[in-house]
Amino acid sequence: SSAMAEERPLAVVTCTAPVNIAVIKYWGKRDNDLILPINSSLSVTLHQDQLKTTTTAAASRDFTEDRLWLNGEEADVGHPRLQACLREVRRLARKRRGGSTEDAAPLSLSYKIHIATENNFPTAAGLASSAAGYACLVSALARLYGVEGELSEVARRGSGSACRSMLGGFVQWQRGERPDGRDSLAHQVAPETHWPELRVLVLVVSGEKKQVGSTAGMQTSVDTSPLLKHRAEVVVPERLALMMRHIRERDFEGFGQLTMQDSNQFHATCLDTFPPIFYLNDLSRHIIALAHRFNAHHGRTKVAYTFDAGPNAVIFTLADTVAEFVEVVRRSFPPATNGDQWGVPAGSGVPWCQDPAPTAPNPCPAPQPGPGPQLVDDPSQHLLGADGLPRCRA
Ligand code: DP6
C-alpha cells in the first residue's frame, strides 16, 4: 500500500457547550423514548468562561471499537441515549450525502469513534451536566460528520434539557405537537447580548448525588401528580407568554418573581408526586428565606432563586447586586472549610458560590448569559491525542 495509506489519518473535532438554567421548568415526558415533554420550557444559557463541557470526537479506520472517556475515566459507550444521538447524527449525515457512496470528502460512517468529554466544573456543583454534555457531544459529532442545521432535536434525544444548550442567550424548548417529535425543538428567544447585566450565582449546599434522578422522578410525577397535569395544561402556557415579555422588556422584578414561582411550583409537583420526591433541604429553604428577606429589605425583587432536581440554589440577579448579596450569603452561613475550591465536601452543609478565590476583590465572578456550542480551533485543546487516546493531563 502507499505511504499515504500508512499515515492512518485521524479525523478529530473538539467543541465546547454551555450549561443552561431553566426559569420555566421542564418536568414530565409524553414520550420517554423520543424525550418529548408535556410542556414547553424556557432557560438562560450561561457563559462558557466559567462553566462548560469540552468534548473531542475522533474517527479512524484503525479504531476497532467505539470508546468513551468521561473526565478521564473510560465509560460505557453503549448507553441507549448516547447511542440514539450517534445514530441520529449518522442518519443526518447519510441524508445529507444524498445516499451517494462515492462522495469525495466525507468521513466514512462505518469508522469506529472515540469520544472524550470533560467538565470544567465539579459534578458536585449539581449543575445540569447532562445538558451541557449531550449538547457538546452532538455538536462535536455533527462537525465530525459535516452535518449542519437543526441539531436541537438530536441533543434532545440525549437529555431533554440538552436541546436548550444548543443555543445561546434565552432559549425556549417548544413542546411540539407531533408524535414523531419533529416539532419539539429549541429556539432562541433573545441573544446573550440582550441582557448583559443579568448574573447567575450557584450556591452549592450539598455535593451529594441526588436521590431521585430527573428521568425517574418526572416519570413518577407524570403518573401520579394531578398538579403536574394542571401545571402543564394551564399554568405553563400562561407563564411562558409572561416570561417572554419580562425578558423582552428586561424587567428583572417580573422575571425574578416568575422564576421563583415556577421553581416553587416545580417543587410542589414533586411533593404532589406519590410517593413524594424531596429535592430541597433545610439549607435550600434557608436560602429561599434569605432571598425573600433580602428583597423585602430593598422593597423590591433584586435576587431570584431557582432549584432543579437537587438542593443547590441558582440565584439570578443583576451585576450591581452581586457583591452585596454574596456578602449577605457569607455572613449568613458558617465560613467555608475547604478554602478556595469550587463545591464542598458532601454533607459539610456549606453553601458556596462560584468563587475560586474568596479574598479576591471581585469575590464572585458570576456568569452572565452566553453563546451556544463553540468549535475549538486550537488543536492543542483536543482531549484525544494523535493515537486517538486521552491525552495525559498535568
Ligand atoms: C428539573 O433534562 O435532566 O432540570 O430529559 O430525562 O434527561 P431527561 O431529564 P433532564 O431534566 C431536567 C429537569 C430540570 C428542569 C429543567 O432543566 O427544565
Automatic annotation (TrEMBL):
Residues 337-394 are annotated as: Disordered. GO terms for molecular function: ATP binding; diphosphomevalonate decarboxylase activity. Pathway: Steroid biosynthesis; cholesterol biosynthesis. Transmembrane segments: none annotated. Belongs to the diphosphomevalonate decarboxylase family. Residues 17-186 form the Diphosphomevalonate decarboxylase-like N-terminal domain. Keywords: ATP-binding, Cholesterol biosynthesis, Cholesterol metabolism, Lipid biosynthesis, Lipid metabolism, Lyase, Nucleotide-binding, Steroid biosynthesis, Steroid metabolism, Sterol biosynthesis, Sterol metabolism. Catalyzes the ATP dependent decarboxylation of (R)-5-diphosphomevalonate to form isopentenyl diphosphate (IPP). Functions in the mevalonate (MVA) pathway leading to isopentenyl diphosphate (IPP), a key precursor for the biosynthesis of isoprenoids and sterol synthesis. It comes from Herpetotheres cachinnans. GO terms for biological process: cholesterol biosynthetic process; isopentenyl diphosphate biosynthetic process, mevalonate pathway. GO terms for cellular component: cytosol. It catalyses: (R)-5-diphosphomevalonate + ATP = isopentenyl diphosphate + ADP + phosphate + CO2. This is Diphosphomevalonate decarboxylase. It comes from the Eukaryota. The keyword rRNA processing does not apply.
